[in-house]
Amino acid sequence: MAQDNCYYNESMQFFYDKVGKREVLNSTMLITVQVVGSTFCIFILVANSMVIAAVITNKRFHYPFYYLLANLAASDFLAGIAYVYLMFNTGDVSPTLSIREYFFRQGLLDVSLSASLANLLVIALERYISVMNWKVHSNLTKRRVTLLIVLVWSISIFMGAVPSLGWNCICSLESCSVMAPIFSRSYLIFWSVSNMIIFVAMVAIYMRIYAYVKRKTTMLMSHTSSSLNRKRTPIKLIKTVMAVLGAFVICWTPGLIVMLLDGLKCEDCNLKKLKSLMLLLAVANSVMNPCIYSYKDEEMWTTFKNLMRCIGNGTRRQRSTRANAKPLGSSQDASTTPPASEERKSDDNESLDS
């Protein structure tokens, strides 16, 4: 029954009927999507757990950049959980959901996307600050990094909750979108446009950073007899995060465009058929990120291998030791030898200031 022209007590079947015929996948296609999606989700959960574990256990990663990278992996981990929940609450199950259950399903996806986007923006700013000071790592304290991480998740949770807080079409059926039947079209326009603006801003930041590093490197090389070791310049970390950003933009831009078209009420776009494809692209993005970390960062890949070995045959103490410690010579004292991260940091500063 409607209450004050609102329909809070209706099931999702009511709203699907209002926006038109729902696109139904045949059984073969649905099973294929669920099998492929489940495989991807398992990989997402395991791989991103390993990224977080690598940052925690390896002291060489105890820098603001890697803490933020671990937080990005945490948002991908949440995305994996959201995809699993979505896959088992879609298809014929979707119309049977209550409004609250639908908001929860979509909210999980929105929170993970917002967290990924916010993390990438914070990482972009961290890279900009460090590179403009010509340092490999910024001077952000752990307290400030922690506050940034809390801020990222606070904003993400709020953004995911916005539709359930009132920006929806439950009391205005004529403004309902096609892809998300209880979401207002105006909200989809806001969501897609704001995200694309952030995309453009981040790309501009990294293009500026990359151009600055290239110019600075060329200047340093012209004043030194030997070429700079590129592994010891900020450009290595920049390439890693640029690859992550590129994958994010490629995988999410089509979905944002489809959402924008839905918000603009494009009746000839056949948006419902694109919905499953957009979801698979989104899943692919969370699959790609751990692969990019391990491919672009040799130290990360080495830590992954150590973790896998230790999980198979080590105790908890042995896992920590094998993942972090380098073998010491007989004449070396572990208590007086500086951590590998400090040695590398010292070498980095020397090479950058030369």
TrEMBL record:
Localization of this protein: Cell membrane
Note the InterPro entries from the entry.
Answer: GPCR_Rhodpsn, GPCR_Rhodpsn_7TM, LPA_rcpt, LPA_rcpt_EDG7
Its keywords, alphabetically, are: Cell membrane, G-protein coupled receptor, Glycoprotein, Membrane, Receptor, Transducer, Transmembrane, Transmembrane helix
Query: Which Gene3D superfamilies does the record associate with it?
Result: Rhodopsin 7-helix transmembrane proteins
Q: Which residues form the G-protein coupled receptors family 1 profile domain?
A: 47-293
What is the annotated signal peptide range for this record? none
GO function term, MF aspect, one = lysophosphatidic acid receptor activity
Principal subcellular localisation of the protein? membrane
The residue ranges crossing the membrane are 31-56, 68-88, 108-125, 145-167, 187-211, 237-257, 277-295
- Membrane-related topology note: Multi-pass membrane protein
Q: Which SMART domains match?
A: 7TM_GPCR_Srsx
Q: Which GO terms describe its cellular component?
A: plasma membrane
Where do the record's region annotations for Disordered lie? 315-354
Polar residues bias locations:
329-339
Its family remark reads:
Belongs to the G-protein coupled receptor 1 family.
Question: What is the official name of this protein in its record?
Answer: G-protein coupled receptors family 1 profile domain-containing protein
